[in-house]
Specification:
This protein is an all-alpha fold. It is about 75% helix and about 0% strand.
């Protein structure tokens, strides 16, 4: 895709992680608030998060460090690959905090590390604080985030948790806000519109090489998109578009797709890219199409035969009612 118009779009794909954090902040904060009075809260919350995140994560590590090197390079190649792994960081979900070089196939796991840290620290905070206090706390985190990036510029990894709190804060603010003011529909519609305008400002900054405020504005814009999707009697055309069956399916398998897509690309590279890449722009578009079909197909199989059976175990950890 180098030199093609499509490249100008794809190089900003990182912004999708900000959307992922907004959704996560909204969903996880909502789960905590709705279940915080239940008994066995911590057991059920953390076990359910483990069932959702860990199996696919550790499957990626197994495939990338053990199975695929063994298949394509033999035992000694596998052993060399295993020795190169940052295993303590992987096990503790801290690979985003240190200046370590991750294989490209493991690259997406930095955001999973942030998610795990978020679950660990946010659950006890959100469970204990009153809604008004939570709202102020999240507002402070959102406002402070770009200034933290400025203050620590050059001293922290770009993937450090401190540099990516905006989206989690925006999602959390929406989750808390709609519980404080559930009937203020017109107010939320205006907030959604203003948030979308902030997002457009973030896009303008992003296209102009960005700044410390880019991620904050984009996160607010993604918050506007989220509000537009969840408000009753909201932006109906947008809501109908989100119900398009292929899009719903991609959303269902999105976790496996996100975690595994670079691994799929790497495997395809030796068979598809190798022969098509020298043939020019049309061949490059064919590579993109093959990658999309293969990665979505693999994620769909992963969902049906691996993720879904494991997620059925969640029924044993359904936040017991108060005794």
């Amino acid at each position: 895709m180098a030199g093609m118009w499509l490249e100008k779009i794809c190089i900003w794909g990182w912004a999708g992680v900000d959307l992922f954090f907004v959704l996560s902040g909204f969903l996880i904060t909502g789960i905590i608030l709705d279940a915080r009075l239940k008994s066995n809260f911590y057991r059920d919350f953390y076990v359910r998060r483990i069932l959702r995140i860990w199996p696919v994560y550790y499957l990626l590590l197994f495939l990338d460090y053990f199975l695929l090197p063994l298949i394509f390079g033999g035992f000694w190649n596998m052993l060399d690959k295993v020795r190169s792994g940052h295993w303590l960081a992987y096990l503790l979900f801290t690979q985003n905090l240190f200046a370590i070089i991750l294989p490209g196939t493991i690259g997406p796991t930095w955001s999973l590390a942030i998610e795990q840290q978020f679950y660990l620290f946010w659950a006890p905070i959100a469970r204990r604080l009153k809604l008004n206090t939570l709202l102020c706390t999240l507002g402070f985190v959102l406002c402070a985030s770009p200034f933290l990036r400025l203050a620590f510029a050059g001293r922290l990894n770009p993937t450090h948790t401190i540099a990516h709190l905006d989206g989690l804060a925006v999602g959390g603010l929406i989750a808390v806000g709609i519980r404080l003011l559930p009937s203020a529909l017109e107010l939320w519609k205006w907030i959604a519109r203003l948030a979308l305008l902030c997002g457009l400002s973030g896009i303008a900054l992003m296209l102009n090489r960005g700044s410390a405020f880019t991620s904050t504005l984009l996160a607010i814009g993604f918050g506007g998109m989220l509000l537009s999707a969840v408000l009753p009697d909201g932006f109906q055309m947008y809501q109908r578009a989100l119900q398009w069956r292929p899009l719903v399916h991609v959303g269902k398998v999105s976790y496996g797709l996100y975690v595994m897509h670079i691994l799929v690309f790497a495997v395809l590279g030796g068979y598809v890219d190798k022969y098509l890449d020298p043939l020019g722009p049309a061949a490059n578009l064919t590579i993109v199409a093959i990658r999309l079909v293969a990665s979505i197909g693999f994620a769909s199989l992963l969902w049906r035969y691996f993720e879904q059976p494991i997620l059925r175990l969640k029924r044993y950890f359904n936040f017991s009612p108060n005794s």
